[in-house]
Fold this protein.
Amino acid sequence: MSKGYIRFAWITLVLIFLVIIAGSVVRSAGAGMGCPDWPKCFDQIIPPTSADQLPVDYKEKYAEYRKVKIFKFASLLDLIGMSSEAESLRTNPELLKEEDFNATKTWTEYGNRLVGFLAGNAVLILLIWTLIRYRSNRTLVFLTFLNLVLMGFEGWLGSVVVSTNLVPWIITLHMLFALLIVVVQIYIIRSCQTPTVVQQISPVFRWLFYFSILLTFVQVILGAQVRQEVDFMVKEGVERALWIDSMEGDSLFHRSFSWILLGANVILFWLNQKANYGFRSVKYILGILIGLFVTGVLFSYAGMPAFVQPMHLLFACVLFALQLFSLSYLKRGQVEMHH
C-alpha cells in the first residue's frame, strides 16, 4: 500500500471526526434547525445573513416542506414495524413549528454541512483510489464501498433530523451511525498496515481489553441517553443550569459506570508496564479517559457549559476508535507492533 494512500485514509478519518465535532457544536449551540431544508440552506447554496433576504412566508413554506418529509419518513417506520413512533411523528404539532431566522445558528449548521461534504467526498475519493489501484484487495474494496454507503445513509438521516425538527432519538441514531463510519474507516487503515513484531501476551490482558471495549460501548449508549434527556429539557425550556438536577437515573448511572471503565484501563496500564508489552495504545487510552473524566466533572459541577460538550463527545469517540484500532492487533494472545 502506498504511503499516499495510507496518509489519505488517515486524513479521511480526521475529516470524519471533524464532522462529529461539528455536529456536537451544532447540537450544543441549539443550531440544528439553523437551515430548515436539506441539502441546501434556505434554498440557497450559500445561506442568507439576514431575515430580509428571505420571503415573507418562509416559515409556512418550510413547515409544509417538513410535513411532507415527516410523512414519508413515518411511512418508512410503518414498514419496519415502528408504527407507534410513526404515529407520534405524524401527530406532533411541535415538529411543524418554524424558528425565527438566526444568522449565527444558520451559519453554524452550514459549517457542519460543509465539513460533512468534505468528509463524504474524501470517502468517495478513497473508494475510487481503491478501485483503480487496489481492486484485487477484496476486503479493502468492500470496506471503502461500505463506508461510502454508510456516508450516504448518514447524509439522508441528517435530512430526516432536520425534517423532524430534531427528534432526540433520531439525533442519537444519527450519532451512532457516525460512530459506525469511524469504526469502518479504522479497519480500512488497519488493513493497509503490515505488522513488524509479534509478542505473546497473557489471556488476562487480552480478555480485559475486550471487556474494556464493551464497557466503552455501554458508556457511549448511556451517554446518548443522557443527551436525549438534555434534548427533551431544551425543548421544554429548562434552563441549562438546571439540567443536571433535572436528570433521572441515566446520568447517575453513566457517571458511576465510568469508574468501572477507568478501573479496567488502569489495570491494563499496570499489566502492560509490568509485562513490558510495549503496547503504546494503552497509555493513550488512559490519557483520553482522564480527559473524559475532566470534561465529565465540568458537566456535573459547572452547569454543563456548551463548549465542553463537543470535547466530551470527541474524547469518547476517539477512545472507542483507538480501542477498536488496538483490538485489531490482538490475535490469539499476541500483540502486533507497527512502525
Q: What stands out?
A: The CA atoms of residues 266 and 286 lie 7 Å apart. The longest strand covers residues 197-200. The two ends are 14 Å apart (CA to CA).
